[in-house]
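WARN no homologs supplied; continuing
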Amino acid sequence: MGQRLSARKCGGGSADQGADALLWDLFPTSISNPATLSEDPEETRLHASMAELLRESVFCLRAVREYKENTELLRAAMASPKDEVLQLQGFSSLLPSIVNIKRAYDLSTRLADELPRLLSYLAARRASLRKHPALFKQLADVLEFSLSFDFEKMGRPALQNDFSYYRRYLGRMAPLIGGGGPAVPEAEAGIISLFMAQSLPMTMTVEKALKDVSKAPAGEGLGSVSQSVQLVGLLANVTCDLALRPGVDDELRWYALRVMTSSVVIYDRVSETGVFNRRSPVRTRKCLRTLRKEQEGTTGASENVSSSVPLAKQLLDSVKYSTLHLRDGSTPGYIRTLLSD
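OK structure emitted
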């Protein structure tokens, strides 16, 4: 899998100092603290492009979380196929949501184009990541978003059902809604429907981006796919250490746990040998034990243990059900134990 990376191989200083400095540079005191950029124009361009996509990700995640179901109205419309007023009312009620779903799909396509450039840039500079904390933090933000979006989408089956309804009735209702045409044309609706049908649409977007790193323009430095996978593994280790750091507030700690979980899942889905293999550079056992302690309410880091327990279980379930290599013969028994109910 190429050069192994750990939190203690990031360039400069002793091993422990290197790890601490990387954590401090990336996440000084809170999520909102900005990290500095180097004077490299390419880094500035990449950071600006990713910042725009991450701003859009905030909107898309909020739109999914606040999604309003139209189940009853749509059932009434389907039960009265000859009631044109009710048909139009049901179809029109979907349009704001359909626009938001399209925005999420558009974001995924833009991430698929831009993320390989970010990964390639960082992978080519893997020996000096401490000089690029802002881009590394953006990679963490993307992985945190992919996990959060997919989890929210999974808990709202109406998203896919409503879009399927829109697509089914689009040809019949489009002439009646007026305006500038349908929110999503029929040809594009089919593509978005396939996107929404995936159980992990944003995770698979990141997965594809990792596999497309070798296709990134040469100007980004052309890191390899294996180097980019190791970069994600490093992110899992770093955020696991961050979550365990004394004095970290709950907001930053849970952010770190989400990034850690997403990194574990992504690494397993892209790496040929998986994240559970004993030779994996990811400290998977430590990551899972950290989540397990959260679920058992034994960390003592959160004042509101009752709310942190289900969150920890959600993250453990993400590893359990979203990874691909858990059932491999090479997966140690202690890993299966940590993920058992």
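Residues 37-213 form one domain.
OK
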